[in-house]
Structure formats: C-alpha cells, structure tokens
Amino acid sequence: QVQLVESGGGLVQPGGSLGLSCAASGFTFSSYSMKWYRQAPGKERELVAGIGSVGDNTYYADSVKGRFTISRDNAKNAVSLQMNSLKAEDTAVYYCNAERRIIGRYYWGQGTQVTVSS
C-alpha cells in the first residue's frame, strides 16, 4: 500500500521558518522524483520544489527561490522542505508528490496546512 504522509505544518509568523517532512512507503522511493506542491484557497495547485531520484537535481518556483530548500534521504524514504523567511502568500496546503513519469506513476500525500500570519 502506497503512503505519503506529510507532517510539520502549522501556524508561523511572517519571517519565520517551518520544516515539512514526507514519509514514504509502499513503493521504491529511490526510483521516484519527489516534489512539493501547494494549493491556496481559490487558487490552482502549483509546483513549489522538486528533487531528482538521487538528489542530484533540484527545482524551485521563482516565488520560493532562495527561501525554500528541498532535500531527500533515500535511506529513510523521506523528503523534506525547509521553508525560511515565510510570507503571508506562502499560506496554503502543501502536498508531497512522488513521480515516476517513465511508467506513469504518480502518488500524492493528504496535505498539510501551512499558515503564515501575525
């Protein structure tokens, strides 16, 4: 059974930091690229950051470049997103995604709420 379980969301003040984690099970984690998406109320889901299967390539949306860092630990089947200098516009539900495009496999977590507010 495939599972992606996010944790670490919560309420943080503007300028603060928060770390998200995603624990994966039920598939060959090291064969999948991992991504974090987010969806704010009334907006479409957007790609925030991504990392290759062995951690060699990373991608960041322009809106989070220099503030967010994605990393993975294939030994622990986990991916993380460190978010610094948070802004109100970072408020959203954050989703962990596993992708192996070559075989058309995509898995999603249930999401974790991040709220940036004073």
- The span between the termini is 40 Å
* Strands, total number: 11
Elements, N to C (H/E): EEEEEEEEEEE
Give the class from helix and strand content and strand pairing. Answer: mainly beta
Largest sheet: 7 strands, mixed
Mean pLDDT: 97
Helical content (DSSP H or I, runs of 4+): under 10%
Unreliable stretches (pLDDT < 50, length at least 5) are none
Proportion of residues in β-strands: over 45%
Which overall shape is indicated by the principal axes computed on the Cα atoms? globular
Rg of Cα set: 14 Å
Number of distinct helices: 0
Question: Briefly, what is this?
Answer:
The protein has strands at residues 3-7, 10-12, 18-25, 33-39, 46-51, 58-60, 68-73, 78-83, 92-100, 105-108, 112-116. The chain is built from no helices and eleven strands.
What attributes does this structure have?
seven-stranded mixed β-sheet; four-stranded antiparallel β-sheet; 0% helix; 118 residues; mainly beta; globular; single chain
Describe this structure in words.
The protein is mostly beta strands and 118 residues long. It has strands at residues 3-7, 10-12, 18-25, 33-39, 46-51, 58-60, 68-73, 78-83, 92-100, 105-108, 112-116. The strands form 2 sheets. Strands 2, 4, 5, 6, 9, 10 and 11 form a 7-stranded mixed sheet that branches. Strands 1-3-8-7 form a 4-stranded antiparallel sheet, with no helix packed on it. A hairpin with a 6-residue loop joins β4 (33-39) and β5 (46-51). The model has no long low-confidence stretch (mean pLDDT 97).
